[in-house]
Design a protein that fits this description.
601 residues; mainly alpha; five-stranded mixed β-sheet; 62% helix; disordered N terminus
Length: 601
């Protein structure tokens, strides 16, 4: 095995390239995804056998590039928003809020500069470069798991995370999350190393600073990550009081830098975060919430450092608590099952939020929970408790949001941040289950798990090449909105070529792709994107139009599935026949390619 690990990675590279070739050819013939499935499965199999970090990186990059190679254009909606922000920077040459409203410039400025100096289309760089960066996050998780466990668990951690449904959903999109989440994982690993060595401290601080400029939610969650892990680490693992000082500096820096940036450039985000902290703090605690939280952090870390010797002495007697390990294990298992049930109730759309996912979509999450429940037993020790605290910190935020203990617009966004620590615990459970089997059997099982998880993570159009009727278990309403077909781009090109002036009304998914037009036809504005209320749909009423400056872009898909501002609050309602008839009667159809129509009124 050691010879395989240290040998040439030529076969892995060929499998990597073969898988990407299969995805590219699937645009012509969907059967080509079989080539991808074969190459990817063998690559995962060999990575498990050789326990090779290089193979793990290739697996991660290959899975993250599924959408980039499978479809010609950007997918979903958020990546198109990022693309429009990139174009704004390229056209204005400025990061001023007057020209660039997003003010999260790490991804946008990077791609704008790369496009300019490489003389390459920005969309191509965005599609391929940003998802591929995910390998840095996966390798950071590998290194972290190897610090506490062995190579086999570390490799399993990376593989399970790379195909985690919530994780791969964002990593593959080429959005700010695609850069922010891997960057947070790199910062997390460097921060852990910096607890015990100042050598890693500058690098950790630099990455944390970049994170603040990348994605506001990831920067906020990182503060929860680092504090939940660090406090448990100082209580149960650390042997030096100096670790508390280094951890305090990282914690305060991670907390302060994003708040400073938001206060200067994104005051709405600053007010939202400060307001949430104010609501979560007890009413009896006076003062500015930012100052109060900072003082709490200082008090906690200074106390841990001051009482470090006493904590170490108490830790020496933890063996006496071994008799309580099983009751604690069963208690944590019960809590995990209850939390999973609450989360499943939310995901099935039985709460105040309206969600509609196929049952097969939950397969990876349920599998990860089952493996984690098996692996939980291995974390009933001082080395494992920091990982439980890490996962518990974000899990509490998620449960609080779905139980409406505080307002959060989209509770689903917490799930991708639970997956990294969950992957470590699940990897321990997987290795425990296959420990008595031949290593090749374990590698085969992991390859099947990864391939299956990857297939069910995406709507059916990605790997099956078609949409399915509601009676089919593979039916997924999102299948028609994940990609933007050529006919939609042709309609947008028509508006661009004719330099349309006025207001464009369409649904949320086409609307995001339309945002690029604002950078080309400066007198065209896009409607129906940020209004999350049913009144948005009223804007389609041609009775509101005047002076022939209103355009309506309708796709054939909107007769089956559309989103006009319902967000997670109401069930999505497709266009009705009477709405189309009214457009036909009261406006002029100026474009028709058979699947996309533009009306002007």
């Amino acid at each position: 095995m050691r010879d395989l690990r240290m040998g040439d990675n030529g076969l892995e590279i060929m499998l990597f390239l073969g898988g990407l070739l299969g995805l590219a050819l699937s645009r012509i013939n969907i059967l080509a995804v079989i080539l991808f499935a074969a190459c990817y499965s063998i690559l995962v199999y060999r990575t498990c056998l050789t326990e090779s970090p290089a193979g793990l990186a290739l697996c991660s990059i290959q899975s993250s590039l599924v959408l980039a190679f499978r479809f010609e254009y950007l997918t979903w909606g958020d990546p198109w928003f990022e693309y429009s922000m990139i174009l704004k920077i390229m056209m204005s040459g400025s990061l001023s809020p007057a020209h660039y409203p997003d003010q999260q410039p790490a991804l946008h400025a990077l791609i704008a500069a790369a496009s300019k100096y490489m003389h390459t289309e920005a969309m191509l760089i965005q599609k391929f470069l940003i998802p591929a960066f995910s390998s840095a996050g996966i390798l950071s998780m590998y290194l972290l798991a190897r610090e506490f466990f062995d190579r086999r668990i570390a490799i399993s951690t990376g593989l399970l995370l790379s195909v985690g449904t919530a994780y791969i959903h964002w990593i593959s999109q080429a959005a700010t999350e695609s850069l922010g989440i891997p960057m947070a994982l790199v910062a997390f690993y460097l921060s852990y190393r910096a607890f015990s060595s100042t050598r890693y401290l500058p690098a950790a601080l630099v990455i944390i600073s970049c994170l603040a400029l990348t994605h506001h939610l990831t920067a906020m969650i990182f503060v929860v990550w680092i504090n939940s892990f660090a406090i448990a680490y100082l209580l149960f693992v650390s042997r030096s009081g100096k670790d508390s000082i280094r951890a305090l500096s990282l914690s305060l820096f991670a907390f302060a830098i994003p708040l400073i940036w938001w206060n200067m450039r994104l005051p709405s985000i600053y007010r939202l975060v400060a307001g949430t902290m104010d609501r979560l703090l007890p009413a009896a605690v006076p003062g500015d919430p930012v100052v109060v939280v900072s003082m709490i952090l200082i008090l906690v870390y200074v106390s841990l450092g001051f009482f470090n010797n006493r904590i170490i002495q108490l830790r020496a007697h933890t063996h006496r608590l071994q008799n309580l390990s099983m009751p604690i294990y069963y208690g944590l298992t019960a809590i995990s099952i209850i939390c999973a049930a609450l989360a499943l109730n939310f995901l099935l759309g039985r709460s105040s939020f309206v969600l509609s996912y196929p049952l097969i979509f939950y397969a990876n999450g349920l599998m990860m929970i089952i493996l984690a429940l098996v692996g939980l037993r291995g974390f009933m020790n001082t080395d494992g408790l920091p990982f439980l605290a890490w996962s518990g910190g974000v899990a509490v935020l998620f449960l609080g949001s779905i139980l409406k203990l505080y307002y959060f617009e989209d509770p689903l966004r917490f799930i991708e941040f639970i997956y990294p620590p969950l992957a470590v615990i699940s990897a321990y459970g997987f290795v425990y289950l296959v420990r008595r089997r031949n290593v090749k059997v374990g590698a085969t099982i992991m390859a099947l798990i990864c391939l299956f998880s990857l297939v069910v993570a995406f709507p059916s159009t990605v790997f099956w090449g078609q949409e399915f009727p509601k009676s089919d278990p593979r039916y997924d309403a999102r299948a028609s909105v994940i990609y933007h077909p050529e006919t939609e781009i042709m309609a947008l090109d028509y508006l661009r070529d004719h330099r349309a002036e006025g207001m464009l009304h369409t649904d949320r998914y086409v609307g995001y792709a339309s945002l690029q037009l604002e950078n080309i036809t400066s007198d065209l504005s896009i409607d129906l994107l940020e209004r999350k209320s049913l009144s948005s749909r009223d804007m389609l009423d041609p009775g509101r139009f005047k002076d022939c400056i209103d355009f309506v872009l309708v796709r054939e898909r909107m007769m089956r599935y559309a989103e006009f501002g319902e967000w997670l609050l109401e069930e999505k309602k497709p266009l009705r026949e009477d709405e189309i008839e009214k457009l036909e009667r009261m406006t002029s159809r100026i474009y028709d390619n058979g699947e996309a129509w533009i009306y002007n009124g």
